Amino acid sequence: MNINDDQRARIIGTFAGFAGNANNMIGSGIYSAPGIVLQKVGSPVIAVMLWIVGGIANLFGSLSYVELGAMIREGGGEIAYLRDAFPTPYRLMSYLFSFSYIILVRPVSIAAVLQAVSNYLLFTFIEHPVKCNNAPPSMLSSCCEKWRILDRYLHPKEWSNEFWLSKAIGLSSLAVVTVYHMSSNLWTGIYSAPGIVLQKVGSPVIAVMLWIVGGIANLFGSLSYVELGAMIREGGGEIAYLRDAFPTPYRLMSYLFSFSYIILVRPVSIAAVLQAVSNYLLFTFIEHPVKCNNAPPSMLSSCCEKWRILDRYLHPKEWSNEFWLSKAIGLSSLAVVTVYHMSSNLWTVRINQTFAIIKITTLVVIIIIGFANFESKLGTDESIWSLGFDKTTPLTFASALIPIYFAYNGWNNLNFCLNEFENPEERLIYSNGLSVALVGLLYTLTNVALFSVVKRSDAIRAGKDFNEVLAGYFAKEIANDKLARVFSFLAVVSAFGAVSSMVWSGSRIIVAASVLNYVPFFSNIFNNWDRFNTPFYALLTQSLWCSILFILLGGAITSDAYLTLVEFSEYLEVLFYFITGISLLVLRCTVVSAFGAVSSMVWSGSRIIVAASVLNYVPFFSNIFNNWDRFNTPFYALLTQSLWCSILFILLGGAITSDAYLTLVEFSEYLEVLFYFITGISLLVLRCSMPGKTRPYRVWLIVPIIFVLVSLFILVGSGIHFNSAFSEDQEKSICIHPSPILIHEYWKIVAAFSSLLLGLINADLNKPLPPIPISEE
């Protein structure tokens, strides 16, 4: 069946759409990001300002997506938007988005959230967090060493550590989320991002302001996406918008979006959240975090040594550390999420709504406690508010906005599955606008609460260490260890819910790319919805890829490199936000006729796979990923996504060192910001190229423009910041953002791969995303 079939049940209402966006946005990021932002800017005032700016920017982006969703009433979000905005050459931009999101961005995000779930859950019961650096040596790094090295890994003791327990929990969480999405957006960023932002800007005031700006920018972006969704009523989101806004050359912009999102942006995001799941879960039970730098030597680094080195890996002691326990938790979480996504779309929606309510309640409790203790440290040397403005520069603001955007990530999920949205003409604007506005308010107040309770020294340490989150120090300050574990477990729930939403939307990106035949040989498979009426194969593929990333991140990839990759992924996403905003303007100028659409709850992951499959972006698998016959859910898209995410989750911290893992996550963030930027551009393009098209919802022109400019500022500013830091101190640059360099290398890889794929794509380039089949539920 096709994903836009008119018989598809509209099971997503206004609250379901609102809950879906909130569930995807609120996660561990709000608990960890404040410390990171504070460490970067150096001032709590600046940090708060940055959070405000980030909220505003994301609000504008959400509004822009509302317009796109109302104009292009198709599932798939950016896949459809980029396809229509940039149809030439060969809908490349839409394809690149689906490719990047399916392969990297969404799987990495899921893997990261799974890690958070695992760590917090373990901390709840074991009383110490799982450090990624406790991972045993990577077997991949010694594939050519002596056979005796295998003894180290075959030894039973090596598999008893918290690393594998963390991975098991993370994969279990992911599996549960995937099942409920296959049967039926607050995430961990709010717990981790405040510390990161504070570390970058150095001032809590600036940090809070940035969170406000980020919220407003994302709100404007959301409203822009509402217009696009109402104008282009197709699944796939940016894939459809960029396709219509930039049809030439060869729909390149749409292809680039799908490519980047499938391969990098979404997988990296999933992997990053999986890591958060594992870390928080382990912290819940074991009381100490899993350090990425405790990982054993990478086998890849010893591939040419003597065979005798294998004995080292066969020894049981090597598998007993917390690193592998964390990976096991994350992989288990991913597996659980993927499974329930494959089972029922209806139950998936209900589960996401439950997660959203729990997350919002948790943040409200943190805000109340924080404001009740507002004056406890005010005026003392331990007060975060005493930090000055020494490190505050416009370039650090751009760098600090990346984790803020990462925390807000998810407000465009509904645009990936407009066909599954109930009465989108009336409800998309409420689901997108209210979710971003409420989350932005909660994020800003949460930052103020965290800065008011946490000690200054702890905040700086949380910003420098990816494994430490500001929320953890918050719990220790206001309660005993047992209550701190309760907070840690709530963070697990938050991260787990984020993984669920990411898995759902990621599979839809794959489907959308498959519909446009952006995935040669596999488009029919990924677009197959026959099993359980879900994108079964898209989910399965995504799960496998995310699992690989998750295992590699933290093992073969160092923690600094991991963060860099995550921020690079967000950078790409902001770029496509920018382009999509432009596409709205383009479509406003050229569209002849369209009906307004307002999209509600969207499971971005699996719907992206479905949208890619509908566009035949996944050759040979499009029909499979677009098959909704089993349980009336994209069963195969969800299953494939879950498998890929599981692979990433396992690899992150295993074959990939913790530093490289962090680089991958930051690279994924960078990619997401890049695609936000591009999608914002697509909105402007569509406004200009389709001026006569009917739009039931139309945002002010300034909304997508501000969203595009903020995304551009993040992309350019963070790049300049990295280059300047690299010239001063090459070692410091690892902790900043080598995303521009990675982008350059990434596009070279994409270009080489695209040259092969474009020769294999023989589908109709103007083929619309078909409707989603209906269920009997």
How would you portray this structure in words?
- With 777 residues, the chain is mainly alpha-helical.
- It is built from 29 helices and eight strands.
- The strands form three sheets. It has a two-stranded parallel sheet with strand order 2-5. A two-stranded parallel sheet has the order 4-6. Strands 7-8 form a two-stranded parallel sheet.
- The longest helix has 35 residues, at 92-126.
- InterPro entries: AA/rel_permease1, AminoAcid_Transporter.
- The chain crosses the membrane at residues 12-33, 45-66, 92-114, 201-221, 252-274, 324-343, 355-374, 434-454, 486-516, 536-563, 575-596, 635-658, 670-687, 699-722.
- Its main location: membrane.
- Keywords: Membrane, Transmembrane, Transmembrane helix.
